[in-house]
Amino acid sequence: MSSHREAPEICTDPVADSTDVYAFVSPDCPGTVTLIANYIPLEGPAGGPNFYAFGDDVLYEIHVDNDGDAEPDLTFQFRFRTELADPDTFLYNTGPITSLSSSNWNRRQVYRVTQVKNGKSTVLADGLSCPPCNIGPLSTPNYPSLAQAAVHDLHGNIKVFAGQRAEGFYVDLGAIFDLGDLRPFENLHAQYGMHLFSKGAPGVNATAQLNVHSIAIQVPIGDLLWGSPHGKVTDQGSVIGVWTTASRQRVQVWDSHSHKKVWSGPFHQVSRLGNPLVNEVLIPLGQKDFWNSQPPHVDKIFLNTVAHPELAGLLPALYPGVFPNLAALVAAKTARADLEAILMTGIPSGIVPGFQNFTGPVIADMLRLNTAIPPTSKPNILGLIGGDPAGFPNGRRVFDDVVTVELRAIAGVTVPLVDKSFTPDGAASLVTDGLTPSSVPSGYLSTFPYLGVPYGGFETPSS
To answer: Which Pfam families match (predicted)?
Structure first.
């Protein structure tokens, strides 16, 4: 749900569907920032014979704004190329794949990384190998070492990886989209008179044992910042805005000679993602495709959906008597300045002691990271509302519980940041879908690329 199948058009184009964006100061290499963009939602591990891959016809980009205008000052572009060794076999591999150069690997992908800085394009590397998908113990033995071989060191202390990873975003999709039936509190739900639940239940991670395709790049902090004063937590120039996009060329035709689709013309954006859950939960259905096509700097046109989130009005209706203070806030039609700051401008200095990730007055959905805030040795999955300024919404780490954070924010926990007279409902600080990082079977890595080893097709039972 962080951006899984979030809009009608992109649902039909999964290779261009960005699922999650992460930006954080690297815990094992604190002089760098790691940027991760995931694509292809809800991959079943046993996806043969044509296993999942990036789109050769998609332009994937991770954008960085470092001067607060919500336009990219630095962009990393990724283009992929599929190479088929033997077109006369139906097999992805004809034997064990024991290295990235194995002759048994029939359908591989390589890619090019290009940096665009101040309008100037520089190819950082080309012909970099992705790892194969995790097929099983006979086809991809010792998969962790195969994947590690696909972590490439580039000039300038840059690392890059592109390939399959375990889905690290945990969310109870089944409950949330069954009319907001949060399992831990399902007995408090209105239930539409059906009286199905008499007590709460544990959350169910809908993405457990599913994979994604991940693009990860680790970059020295100094490469991301220039111009404005930076280096201190209080410096606005220490804050970057991050988002990802996927673009396709405007014209698609079928070539009857090659029996392939051919794309032509200029690229146009078909997907984007900054903060988690914005397009999914805040943008109305009739605007979702349009939102995906727009750059962040025009997001003022969507501000009303953030300032008056539909979900804030639904929670009191779905859970009668549980959120009376939130209900009164909604009835008064009070604009949610707290959500505007968290999601659309960053939080200015003076709101949270010792913290800011403010990029300026431009309204834009970007993941904002204050690069001067170091990683903590004891991270809290609730990030800033859990007392950990190194976590969401200060960027986003792979294990951050963004569902709970945003549910609680919408429920009113963050309103006192801008209105001291408001008292959040007691339930607001408890609302959750009932999941934690322990709900992710693969776990996470402590080093780049941080997301866990993808689930294997042979080992993982179908759901």
So the answer is: DUF4331 (PF14224)
Contact criterion met (CB below 8 Å) for 455 and 168: no
Contact present, 261 and 238 (Cβ < 8 Å): no
**DSSP symbol at 246:** E
- Dihedral angle, C-alpha 390, 297, 34, 397, nearest 10 °: 40
Q: Per DSSP, what are the bridge partners of residue 355?
A: 352
pTM over 0.85: yes
**Phi and psi angles of residue 421, each rounded to the nearest 5 degrees, phi first:** -80, -15
Q: What is the CA radius of gyration of the chain?
A: 22
Looking at residue 195, its pLDDT comes to 92
Under 8 Å between Cβ of 271 and 18? yes
Which bin fits 289, alpha (ψ -120 to 50), beta or left (φ > 0)? alpha
What is the tally of helices (H) and strands (E) in the chain?
9, 12
Segments of the chain scoring below 70 in pLDDT: 1-3, 461-463
Both structure tokens of 191:
């239930």
Give pLDDT tens digits for 261-297. 777 789 999 999 999 989 989 999 999 999 999 999 9
Q: Residue 463 has what pLDDT?
A: 52
Q: What is the DSSP string of 52-97?
A: ----TT-EEEEEEESSSSSS-SEEEEEEEEEEES-TT---SBSS--
CA 159, distance to chain mean position in Å, is 19
How far is residue 304's CA from residue 295's CA, in Å, rounded to a whole number? 17
CA dihedral sign, ordered 119, 124, 130, 131 = negative
Q: How far apart are CA 208 and CA 230, in angstroms?
A: 40
Residue boundaries of the structural domains of the chain: 10-439
C-alpha separations of 316 from 128, 405, 434 in Å: 51, 18, 19
The residue among 358, 342, 65, 113 whose CA lies nearest residue 224 is 65
Q: Which of 332, 370, 76 is nearest to 219 (CA)?
A: 76
Distance of CA 393 to CAs 345, 390, 425, Å? 11, 9, 22
- The DSSP letter of residue 131 is P
CB 85, CB 103: distance < 8 Å: yes
Q: Where are the alpha helices (DSSP H) in 295-376?
A: 303-307, 310-318, 324-331, 337-340
In contact, 87 and 248? CB cutoff 8 Å: no
> What's the pLDDT at 258?
72
Record the tokens describing residue 248, joined without a space: 């396709």
